[in-house]
Amino acid sequence: MRQKTALPTLSINQNILEVCDTVKVLGVTIQADLKWNSQVDYMLTSANRKLFVLCRLKKFGVKDPELVSIYTGYVRPVLEYAVPVWHSSLTASQSNSLGEQNHSGPAKAVQVQLQKLATPT
Predict the structure, then answer these.
(1) 3-state SS string over the chain?
(2) Comparing C-alpha atoms, which of 25, 20, 49, 50 is closest to residue 39?
(3) What is the model's pLDDT at position 2?
(4) Which of 11, 29, 78, 101 has the fewest CB atoms below 10 angstroms from its CB?
(5) Is 11 inside a domain boundary?
(6) 83 near 92, Cβ under 8 Å?
(7) Ramachandran region of residue 103, left (φ > 0), alpha (ψ -120 to 50) or beta?
(8) What is the span of the domain harbouring residue 83?
(9) pLDDT in tens, 77-100
């Protein structure tokens, strides 16, 4: 196990900069260890909340083509935001949690759930 080295104190105009574990830049959470756990967790939580809205809409009788449109404009952007920044650095388990098996894209897991929604009840 590596020992943490003491970081030098940085300042700008005599204002000392605070050391943070995570920082959000343009909607992407970057961790100090350059892992993407926080970003992946946020994306999955947000997508699942929005997917719940789709489930409710289906129960209220919204037609499948409209559900797909809502998914495409409401859920999928959450899963695909800033993909070029974080995609290549994901671990295998993070890729699996986002549904990237067989290079099917980061939105695959939610797409599967959406397909379940589209089946007649």
Answers:
(1) CCCCCCCCCCEECCEECCCCCEEEECCEEEECCCCCHHHHHHHHHHHHHHHHHHHHHHHCCCCHHHHHHHHHHHHHHHHHCCHHHHHHHCCHHHHHHCCCHHHCCCCHHHHHHHHHHHCCC
(2) 25
(3) 65
(4) 11
(5) no
(6) no
(7) left
(8) 35-118
(9) 888 888 888 777 778 777 777 764
Query: Residue 47: CA atoms inside 13 Å, Cβ hemisphere, count?
Result: 27
Q: Is residue 95 in some structural domain? A: yes
Name the nearest CA neighbour of 116 among 69, 55, 60. 55
Structure tokens, 71: 């998914």
Asked if residue 47 lies in contact with residue 23, where contact means CB atoms within 8 angstroms, the answer is no
Rounded to an integer, what distance in angstroms lies between the CA atom of residue 111 and that of residue 76? 9
Full-model pTM: 0.66
How many domains would you assign to the chain?
1
Query: 65, 58 in Cβ contact below 8 A?
Result: no
Look at the block and give the residue holding tokens 């574990």.
Answer: 21
Q: Is residue 1 part of a domain?
A: no
Residue 23 lies in a domain: no
